[in-house]
Amino acid sequence: MNHVPLLINGELCQSATDAYIDVTNPANNDVIARVPCATSDEIEQAIDSASKAFETWKDVPVTERARLMMRYQALLKEQQKEIAEILAAETGKTFDDAMGDVWRGIEVVEQAMNVPSLMMGETAENVARGIDTYSYIQPLGVCAGITPFNFPAMIPLWMFPLSIACGNTFVLKPSEQDPMTPMKLAELFKQAGAPDGVLNVIHGGKDQVEPLLTHPTIKAVSFVGSVPVGQHIYRTATANMKRAQCFAGAKNHTVIMPDANKEHVLNNLVGASVGAAGQRCMAISVAVFVGEAQAWIPELAERIGQVKPGPWTDKDSAFGPLISPQARQRVLSLIESGKQQGATCLVDGSEVTVPGYEQGNWVGPTVFSDVTPEMDIYQQEIFGPVLSMVNADSLDEALTLVNNNPYGNGTSIFTNSGAAARKYQREVTVGQVGINVPIPVPLPFFSFTGWKNSFYGDLHAYGKQAIRFYTETKTITSRWPESDIPGGPNMTISLS
Ligand code: NAD
Fold first, then answer.
1. Which residues, in sequence order, are CB contacts of 406 under 8 Å at separation 6+?
2. Does residue 1 surpass a pLDDT of 90?
3. How many other C-beta atoms lie within 10 A of the C-beta of residue 8?
4. 345 CA distance to ligand 1 centroid (A)?
5. Cα separation values, 258 from 113, 185, 291, 318, Å
6. Between 233 and which of 38, 167, 208, 223 could a Cys-Cys bridge form, CB atoms 3.0 to 4.6 Å apart?
7. Of 21, 226, 405, which is best to mutate to test ligand 1, by the most ligand atoms within 8 angstroms of its C-beta?
């Protein structure tokens, strides 16, 4: 049985713990590895190693740090398929989707390769007589990252490459449900030439996260996961005087206007709703059909109903199983609540089984119409292959619905009207908006900008915001007088 190692001070080592969590293949629940719950000593060693490594890493020229990212990007591209296979085996994602997960992480590493220009400060000459002002961007110190199960390559890669490229060192605590992918990323980072201690990886759950939120050495905490955990991490990290950015749950709406291109809408919504078994923080979970667009509902339901889940080893699988039996049970009980609370179940995936994989965490595509905002299936993040359809009479009504929702991760509108699209993009209180694009995940030269209950903090992931999150700005005011300045002491605050 594979015991997942820790990475401490450049060493891939076995934990001394006797507490382990099983890592399973979600397609049949076979145990494929065991992940240790790191001991307090090991967590302390990881933080200490990051702290010592910071003393030298912060002085490594920014160009050399960028070159580490270039070597890392090349290795990730070379081994994308191997990483995707590990990822598919422990998450159940289809191989193509697993390749996409890795690819979207590689794109962030490409952003980190630009760190010399991203870390340029500002200058202004002669702000007062003989005085120049300029700023430098400097690293913070030791940063920590806590990641969820649903993107085990992309989300760790949102965090440690940018933080480390900025001159910080890092302690990562990946999801205990799929830790082998992040471990492979860490091994490749070491292989790319990362000095010992610059990246450390510890494993476990809640108990292993807590020290990262309170330890005085850690300066900043990045988290991605569910709302209750995100709130707890934000409160604890900030109460311990750390910077925190916490990305949390979502309920993403798409608005379908009657003037939209019907084929484009139907084709896009199938994958955006049930793709990856709905386990994407940017999945479309609510479709709001405005006016005559409601006539398309039966056809969309029929197309979604044709999509079949299956194991990643089968090329015909459209999506995989849910991550765990608990996640499946939760989704099944929400489907049941939708039926009980009066929604119309047009497609019911709760009885789906996959021949040869009867023990897997399967839920088939599920579609509800006539959903109203009081229902649990509307209010809760389902995180399964379930699409709720809501009717609205006008764009204004759709906008009010979306804006009243407590989440604000992503949304989209399908329309051929520039005026409708502009009104929507301007007035919607959601941080990432797609126009005829269902899942608007920005590329890494922008930032990933969830709002409301989908994000706690100020500065978001990747893009320029991440550089600011992981750094301090130092502003220097300098004068180089050629001789003594006449006039005696300056008793005022003004520069002269
Ligand atoms: P989760 O909150 O259960 O776990 C996330 C991480 O937190 C894991 O590493 C876990 O070990 C740790 N953790 C769990 N309970 C904890 C506790 N009580 N204290 C401290 N740490 C704890 O989330 P998940 O199930 O792995 O991921 C799915 C969730 O992540 C969904 O809600 C999804 O919307 C969200 N997500 C959000 C984004 C985004 O960008 N907004 C992206 C991906 C996933």
1. 251, 452, 453
2. no
3. 25
4. 29
5. 44, 45, 6, 28
6. 223
7. 226
Distance (Å, whole) CA 43 – CA 37: 10
What digits encode the pLDDT tens for the residues 135-184? 999 999 999 999 999 999 999 999 999 999 999 999 999 999 999 999 99
Place of tokens 């010992």: 196
Rounded to whole angstroms, the Cα distance separating 465 from 111 reads: 12
- With helix as H, strand as E and coil as C, how does 162-222 read? HHHHCCCEEEEECCCCCCHHHHHHHHHHHHCCCCCCCEEECCCCHHHHHHHHHCCCEEEEE
Which is the closest atom of ligand 1 to the Cα of 225? 30
Sequence letter at residue 43: I
* Superfamily holding 252-435: Aldehyde Dehydrogenase; Chain A, domain 2 (3.40.309.10)
- Evaluate the CA torsion angle 480, 486, 492, 496 in order and state its sign: negative
pLDDT 10s digits, 442-458: 999 999 999 999 999 99
Exposed/middle/buried for residue 487 (C-beta within 10 Å: 0-12, 13-18, 19+): exposed
Q: What pLDDT band is residue 493 in, cutting at 50, 70 and 90?
A: confident
Which residue is closest in CA terms to ligand 1's atom 26?
A: 148
Cα(44)–Cα(40) distance, rounded to whole angstroms? 6
pLDDT at 249 over 90: yes
Is pTM beyond 0.90 here? yes
How much is the pLDDT for 483? 79
**pLDDT value at position 489?**
80
Question: Which amino acid belongs to residue 262?
Answer: K
Instruction: Say if ligand 1 is within 6 A of residue 250 CB.
Output: yes
Give ranges for CATH 3.40.605.10 in the chain: 6-248+454-476
**Whether residue 207 has its Cβ less than 6 Å from ligand 1:** no
Q: Is 20 in the pocket of ligand 1 (CB under 6 A)?
A: no
Those residues with Cβ within 8 angstroms of residue 293's Cβ, 6 or more apart along the chain or in another chain: 256, 257, 258, 260, 265
Measure CA 35 to chain center. Answer: 22
Residue nearest to atom 8 of ligand 1 (CA): 175
Q: Which CATH superfamily is domain 6-248+454-476 in?
A: Aldehyde Dehydrogenase; Chain A, domain 1 (3.40.605.10)
Instruction: For residue 246, indicate whether it is catalytic.
Output: no
CATH 3.40.309.10 boundaries in the chain:
252-435
Task: Confirm if 49 and 9 have CB atoms less than 8 A apart.
Answer: yes
- Cα 32 to the chain's mean position, in Å? 25
